[in-house]
Design brief:
283 residues, 36% helix, Nucleotidyltransferase, domain 5, two-stranded antiparallel sheet
Length: 283
């Protein structure tokens, strides 16, 4: 008799910017082996305490005063990413790739439809269990969803229905493991938020924004640019030729959608048309 081994993975997920100058619909996720979540959380919280960061850390709080502390925390966070203890996935949509024939229903449900695609595909869950005799349990923690209770519940129902897609590989989701959480209580989600915010900041040229009636940038903008460059430095230690604005290559092996510690996905709908007037070069 073959004993089925239960593996458990937890995905923390959040979204950032729905509409930017050049890129929109930013989603981010961090996947961790559930058995290691507590240990990693404790280490990250200890690092925060060591740095006297007693409140929630997030991209919107980055300032010149706290820059060095944020850099040290993110460097420490990336130690777990480089060791593949935390897998980070970032998804966004390039505005120049304009989807065609969208219905009103598509437009109204854009936020949740894209979130669904992110969970379904970004982590390569369908490649996480090459030995299908193992049983894998997938837990999903979403930062508080911003819509009505009814629509949030409907979205969770669609996430639960992913069982039909994942069960082929013996991956299962239980209803009680799809939860909304407060990022204040989850340091892994906080650190992922910083990375997600940094990507939106750079891809939408926020690093070039000037102060009102001035030809110079603000101190906060300069601090955020420095933190972004530090994040990019960490990513390039994993992928030397990393390009933040395109989907990370699978390098000829689809299994790398799962195996890679860090990946970007520039989402493109099947019937989209490229509009060069919406690119950075044109503007």
């Amino acid at each position: 008799m073959v004993i089925k081994m239960k593996k458990q993975y937890l995905i923390y997920a959040d979204e950032s910017h729905r509409k930017g100058k050049y890129f929109s619909n930013f989603y981010g996720g961090a996947l961790v082996n559930y058995r290691e979540v507590e240990k990693i959380n404790n280490k990250l919280n200890a690092k925060k305490e060591e740095l006297s960061l007693f409140q929630e850390v997030k991209w919107t709080k980055v300032t010149e005063q706290y820059l060095d502390k944020y850099i040290e925390l993110i460097d420490y966070f990336f130690e777990f990413v480089k060791a593949n203890k935390i897998k980070i996935r970032i998804m966004f949509r390039q505005n120049a790739l304009v989807p065609q024939n969208l219905t009103r229903d598509h437009e109204e449900k854009e936020y949740f439809l894209l979130y669904y695609q992110f969970i379904k595909h970004a982590f390569g869950i369908d490649y996480c269990n090459p030995n299908e005799k193992d049983q894998v349990l997938l837990k999903l923690y979403f930062d508080k969803l911003p819509d009505t209770k009814k629509k949030n519940k409907e979205f969770k129902g669609f996430i639960y229905a992913l069982n039909d897609f994942f069960c082929i590989n013996n991956v299962h989701i239980y209803n009680e493991d799809i939860a909304e959480i407060d990022s204040k209580d989850h340091v892994i989600l906080q650190c992922m938020d910083i990375i997600l915010g940094a990507m939106n900041f750079k891809l939408n040229n926020m690093d070039k924004e000037k102060l009102p009636n001035s030809n110079r940038r603000g101190k906060r903008t300069i601090a955020k640019e420095k933190l972004y460059k530090n994040i990019l430095k960490n990513i390039k230690e994993i992928y030397p030729n990393f390009n933040i604005g395109v989907s990370t290559s699978t390098r000829g092996e689809y299994e790398n959608n799962w195996k890679d510690p860090y990946r970007h996905w520039c989402f493109k709908s099947k019937n989209s048309v490229f509009d060069s007037s919406l690119t950075k070069k044109t503007k």
